[in-house]
Amino acid sequence: MSAARSDDDPPSLREHLDCEARLNPRQPLMDGNRVTLLQNGPATYAAMLDAIERARSHVNLETYIFDDGVVGRHFSSVLQSVARAGVRVTLIYDSIGTLGVPGSFFDALRSAGVRLLEFHPINPAAKNPRLWRINNRDHRKMLIVDGRIAFVGGINISDTYSSVPSARHAPGSNGDVIDAGWRDTHLRIEGPAAAQFQDLFVETWRRHSDEPLDPSGFFPDPIPSSGHARVRAIGSVYDDQKNPIFATLISAIDHAQSHVNLTVAYFAPDRRLLRSLTRAARRGVKVRMVLPCKADSWAIFHLGRSYYGRLLRGGVQVYERQGPVMHSKTASVDGLWSTVGSANLDWRSMLHNNEANAVIVDRAFARQMNRMFEDDIAVSVAFERRRWRRRSWWLRAQEFVSRLMAYFL
């Protein structure tokens, strides 16, 4: 059931939702959803595996990384088990994201009856050479079970997320533990909006696989109401003329009245996003950003830092979360509008990847988002404009070099 507006929506939110609807005409805002906020790997994996084990009709999984580790083998075992029990299981995985995973890992899934699609194989011989696009990746992280439950967010299937992040580690961009306990955010969505994530999955399969996909049972009708949250799925693909995820976020920032809270894993903004953030701050909106104190990419870490000066001059409050890598991609605006998904605020997500985000319009959920954000702030270091201006020439040099590679990061 669609529900673009509520009588309780403030005028600024109504204006934004009108803009959001124009940007995403195929995905109306759907009422009647229950949204569960999942923090970090252990909680997310437990919820996903529980949903898979309870599946009766089908399981559709789309992921960038599916590692052959403890977590990946557990997921593989459960997927094989439900497939052998008669549940239709379909998996889309990215070729770059699974680089190094042995073919036997996926052969075992195929032998159990799981249907597989390797997105944009690295080997051009494995796909029509005319369609070989090594720079365009499927960065989505989605799971749809029985057409009624959807998971979406930033968490891949990897041992990287298998422990709870701690802020006890020393900070540093190149230093300690970046391979365990990553801080990330995911969602479990139950209700009518699950059909929109199903649409995204089916569209990717049909566009990139030579094998037909029977969608019977994928879209149960009606899907009963499970809660009160309004939800919209937003998907972007690498050949979009205008990226709907970024355009939607910019509209939300432009219409903000009180606050904007952002957690950003990889930050390489374009001029429009920088302008929206600084203009919001200058008109009195409290704009805060939490970024990682280290990253798995030297270049993207310093590229993000190269924009701190402009953000700080514009009144944006910048923090770096201490401890393991922060991989979250979230936003919350004015205590009512939120988004969680796979899209980073960088050129790769903007131009080169397939991404998927959820928009949630719900005060109770926004309160949870704000509490989570304050928890991240509590273990973060704030940046001060004068101190940042005094940073070393070596840091400035790394920022300069990283800017040269921005388009590809």
From TrEMBL:
<feature type="domain" description="PLD phosphodiesterase">
    <location>
        <begin position="322"/>
        <end position="349"/>
    </location>
</feature>
<dbReference type="InterPro" id="IPR001736">
    <property type="entry name" value="PLipase_D/transphosphatidylase"/>
</dbReference>
<dbReference type="GO" id="GO:0016020">
    <property type="term" value="C:membrane"/>
</dbReference>
<dbReference type="GO" id="GO:0032049">
    <property type="term" value="P:cardiolipin biosynthetic process"/>
</dbReference>
<dbReference type="GO" id="GO:0008808">
    <property type="term" value="F:cardiolipin synthase activity"/>
</dbReference>
<protein>
    <submittedName>
        <fullName>Cardiolipin synthase</fullName>
    </submittedName>
</protein>
<feature type="domain" description="PLD phosphodiesterase">
    <location>
        <begin position="134"/>
        <end position="161"/>
    </location>
</feature>
<dbReference type="Pfam" id="PF13091">
    <property type="entry name" value="PLDc_2"/>
</dbReference>
<dbReference type="InterPro" id="IPR025202">
    <property type="entry name" value="PLD-like_dom"/>
</dbReference>
